[in-house]
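Hi everyone,

Forwarding the result from last night's run.
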Amino acid sequence: NSELTCPWHGAKWDIKTGSLISFPQKLKPLQSHKVLIENDTLYLEM
C-alpha cells in the first residue's frame, strides 16, 4: 500500500509522491524524502 492516511481527518496521500489523494478540504501536497533503513539506523535524505 503506497498511501498514508490521517486517522483523525481521513486525508490520504501517496507516500511515493506526496500528492494528495483525497480529503474533504483543499490541502497542499506533502514533501516526500528518500529513506534508508540500515541495521537499526534510519537515514533520511533531505
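The chain is about 0% helix and 40% strand.

Cheers,
N.
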